[in-house]
């Protein structure tokens, strides 16, 4: 499987979740075993030698490949969720996204100052969700932060709002 083959499997859903949004639906790639393996293997190859101790998946599509990557590189998995989904004490961050506002949370004790983390999600668009996740992780304090998304919408310049010392990688560009 190649990057272009996986890109060809991902479908576009016009006007979802609202008019004017061109939603990139990864479920078509997830149901394809070769595409799913390619995505996981590509991320593992990028991060296997970076000393990652925790992979942090953003709700909800970051929960799909994130745990598999964590297992392959010998790291733990930490979820970032929407409010009311985590049972212990949390910290939260609100943010603007391309079609509204939202809030995300992480357990206060999910990370340590010694952790090297990989924040993982399916899509990097305007960068609001990932920037909020970075702020959550910074509130706790870690050694190093890496960011990975399966897809990046290049024209929306989402990576430009992130600190220059954070390495951002994406597998597929539109």
Task: Describe, in plain words, how this protein is organized in 3D.
By secondary structure, this protein is of the alpha/beta class. The chain has helices at 3-9, 27-30, 33-47, 62-73, 128-140, and strands spanning 11-14, 22-25, 54-58, 76-80, 90-97, 100-107, 116-124, 144-152, 167-173. It has a 5-stranded parallel beta sheet, sandwiched between helices. Helices cover 29% and strands 34% of the residues. The model has no long low-confidence stretch (mean pLDDT 96). α3 crosses α4 (62-73).
What are the salient characteristics of this protein?
five-stranded parallel beta sheet; two-stranded antiparallel ribbon; globular
Round the mean pLDDT to the nearest integer and report it: 96
Low-confidence stretches: none
Order of helices and strands: HEEHHEHEEEEHEE
The total count of strands amounts to 9
Give the structural class.
Answer: alpha/beta
Oligomer: single chain
Percent of residues in helices comes to 25-40%
Shape: globular
Q: First CA to last CA: what distance?
A: 18 Å
Tally of helical runs: 5
What spatial order of strands do you see in the largest sheet?
4-3-7-8-9
Biggest sheet record: 5 strands, parallel
Proportion of residues in extended strands: 25-35%
Radius of gyration: 15 Å
